[in-house]
Design goal:
- By secondary structure, this protein is mainly alpha-helical.
- It has three domains: about 5-135, Fumarase/aspartase (N-terminal domain) (Fumarase C, Chain B, domain 1, Orthogonal Bundle), CATH 1.10.275.10; about 140-395, Fumarase/aspartase (Central domain) (Fumarase C, Chain A, domain 2); about 405-459, Ribonucleotide Reductase Protein R1, domain 1.
- It contains 18 helices and ten strands.
- It has helices at about 25-30, 40-60, 65-80, 100-115, 130-135, 140-175, 195-215, 220, 240-255, 265-270, 270-295, 325-350, 360-385, 395-405, 410-415, 415-430, 435-440, 445-450, and strands at about 5-10, 10-15, 180-185, 190-195, 225, 260, 310, 355, 355-360, 390.
- The strands form five sheets. A two-stranded antiparallel ribbon has the order 1-2. A two-stranded antiparallel ribbon has the order 3-4. Strands 5-6 form a two-stranded parallel ribbon.
- Helix 1 runs antiparallel to helix 4 and helix 12 (about 325-350) runs antiparallel to helix 13.
- The chain is elongated.
Length: about 450
């Protein structure tokens, strides 16, 4: 491999000759060769948005020449389009402020701008990574700004639409089976009747409520730390820089962002990220319940509950011919387990703010974006390959309803709890239907039983 020699404040550094990144990126690759985790492409895109907005703001303030601004903007647009994805190779496991990644982005933008100006890579002329690309900024305010932008865009563009789709799919099942009566279950034991539609309406409402909680956390994420610079005081940034840059960020993303109400809090803690992760954990808990219910109700097909039938997407066993498994439920459950684990990490990282700076920023955004991405994909897959194709096993639903002893609950108001319980126990001991046991008890005649014990009146 051919190298070029670059200099930074610590001395000379070998940089691969054709790479657009520079000395600080090369140092980070050497000192943080940890794991294979890299930042989400959406995170790098958000970085490009911030750097473009900063350049445009500095131009308006008369701090950056038009030619330099044009070169930086062109480089940022190319990064946003994904043309230089391999120029961002740094590990998530780096300095807790994300300084290496901020400088990685600065260097790539500067060197790409130098290329566009027909200059020499690594020369820092005509675009300097610190003086021009990073003008009015610090890693300490840029990185959390990018965290918030990437999170808001991912939630609004990926997660919330997938939840709306899933909610509507579950609502469609609720309407389809609104009159199909089945036996309810509590404690995994027979209970009074519900309709299959009522069960699915509960699932749909859970998803809608989880989406509302996620949306409720967005205002905190829409507050940006930009302009706080190193410790919150805004040193080296023009007083109007943050307002102008954030206005550009809102325009470029199509999302509304504002300046953080307290810049010291914005870089010292990340409570909004912790809150957002908590809402994702809540969604994971919701989806776990739904997925477990659906695989429970579909168990069998002959020796389990078997009240609903799931789509047969793929063979379920390498040894048992014809077996079909609830694979979409299982995939969703694994995603939920991962998201809950991610939330634990984010909570610990969020508690690691010391004085004027939180120093676990990279792992927080890495985990949050992974949770958003996984939940978005899992919800789309669960909707498309499971929910849409769910069918009711109507004959088995009726069979279970007819055999249930808990319909005796309808007799309690007229016979009393103890007499009704005696009838249910008699039916169970003697393997009778509930109607047979009630008539045999002498406590009620068949005509009265049929009037009182009507599942249609019990739902």
């Amino acid at each position: 491999m051919h190298y070029r020699i670059e200099k930074d404040v610590l001395g000379e550094v070998q940089v691969p000759a054709k790479r657009l990144y520079g000395a600080q990126t090369a140092r980070s690759l050497h000192h943080f060769a940890i794991g294979k985790e890299r930042f989400d492409p959406g995170f790098i895109q958000a970085f490009a948005v911030v750097k473009k907005a900063a350049a445009l703001a500095n131009k308006k303030l008369g701090l950056l020449a038009a030619r330099k601004t044009s070169l930086i903007v062109r480089a940022c647009d190319e990064i946003f389009a994904g043309y230089m994805a391999d120029e961002f190779p740094l590990s998530v496991w780096q300095t807790g402020s994300g300084t290496q990644t901020n400088m990685n982005v600065n260097e790539v933008i500067a060197n790409r701008a130098i290329q566009l100006a027909k200059g020499k890579l690594g020369s820092k002329t005509p675009i300097h990574p610190n003086d021009d690309v990073n003008q009015g900024q610090s890693s300490n305010d840029v990185f959390p700004t990018v965290m918030h932008i990437a999170a808001v865009v991912a939630i609004c563009d990926q997660l919330l639409p997938s939840l709306v789709q899933l909610q509507k799919g579950l609502e469609a099942k609720a309407r389809q089976y609104k009159d199909l009566i089945k036996i309810g279950r509590t404690h995994f034991m027979d209970a009074t009747p519900v309709t299959l539609g009522q069960e699915f309406s509960g699932y749909a409402h859970q998803v809608a409520s989880a989406a509302n909680r996620i949306q409720a956390g967005l205002p905190g994420l829409r507050e940006l730390a930009l302009g706080a610079t190193a410790v919150g005081t805004g040193i080296n940034a023009h007083p109007r820089f943050a307002a102008l840059a954030i206005k550009e960020i809102s325009r470029l993303t199509g999302q509304h962002f504002t300046r953080a109400s307290n810049p010291f809090s914005a870089i010292a803690c990340h409570d909004a990220m912790v809150e957002a992760s908590g809402a994702l954990r809540g969604l994971a808990v919701t989806l776990s319940k739904i997925a477990n219910d659906i695989r429970f109700l579909s168990s069998g097909p002959r020796c389990g509950i078997g009240e609903i039938v799931l789509p047969a997407n793929e063979p379920g066993s390498s040894i048992m011919p014809g077996k079909v498994n609830p694979t979409q439920c299982e995939a969703l459950l694994m995603v939920c387990s991962q998201v809950i684990g991610n939330d634990v990490t984010i909570a610990i990282a969020g508690a690691s703010g010391n004085c004027e700076l939180n120093v676990q920023k990279p792992v927080m955004i890495h985990n949050l974006l992974q949770s958003i991405r996984l939940l978005s994909g899992a919800c789309r897959s669960f909707y498309k390959h499971c929910v849409v194709g769910i069918k009711a096993n109507k004959a088995h639903l009726q069979e279970n309803l007819d055999r249930s002893l808990m319909l005796v609950t309808a007799l309690a108001p007229s016979l009393g709890y103890d007499q009704a319980a005696m009838i249910a126990q008699k039916a169970y001991r003697e393997n009778l239907t509930l109607r047979q046991a009630a008539i045999a008890s002498g406590l009620i005649d068949g005509k009265t039983f049929d009037v009182l014990v009507d599942p249609r009146k019990m739902v």
